[in-house]
Amino acid sequence: AGPGRAPGAGTFGVPEGLTTAEALVRLKEDGTNTLEPPPKEGILRIFVRQMQSVIFLLTSIAAVASYSLGDKYKAAILVFVVLFVIVLNTVGEYSSQDAGNALCKMAAPQTACLRDGREVLIEAAALVVGDVVVVKAGDVV
Fold first, then answer.
1. C-alpha span between 72 and 63 (Å, rounded)
2. CA–CA distance from 87 to each of 43, 84, 93 (Å)?
């Protein structure tokens, strides 16, 4: 709800939807119905966060214990496996950050809603709080 407006306040009724004038006021007050893409996290920060996981710490302790007990072969294998998994997880997480942007692009660009008592097709970004959206079988939501 915009400043000074209670949720659901205004010229709104389920059979009619909003008036065009009320929708324009709400669009001006609240802004467009769009999402900001999340900030992209750096690959180094992701790598450090992966190294702070409990599994990494426990496996590192096991590698140090193996090395100190004279089993250098097991220690080397543990270190290699842990670093390999951390690198794979880091690359996967870094490349998956664009998934949110891809989802935004897949969103329906237009939608049907009730305005002034009749069904109209508008840009999805122009939807405002209080709009009655008409959803039919097969519509992309």
1. 9
2. 10, 5, 10
Report the alpha-carbon distance of residue 63 to residue 128 in Å, rounded: 57
Give start and end residues of each alpha helix (H) in the chain.
20-30, 43-51, 54-68, 72-95, 99-106
Whether 122 contacts 18, CB under 8 Å: no
Q: For residues 29 and 10, is the Cβ–Cβ distance under 8 A?
A: no
What DSSP designation does 126 have? G
Which contiguous run of DSSP H or E holds residue 72? helix 72-95
Closest CA to 89 of 31, 138, 48, 141: 48
The four Cα atoms 21, 114, 122, 105 give a dihedral, to 10 degrees, of 120
The secondary element (H helix, E strand) that includes residue 115 is strand 110-115
Any idea which residue has 């000074």 for tokens?
4
What pLDDT digit, counting tens, does each position of 74-106 carry?
999 999 999 999 999 999 999 888 776 677 677
- Token couple for 130: 């209080």
- pTM for this structure? 0.54
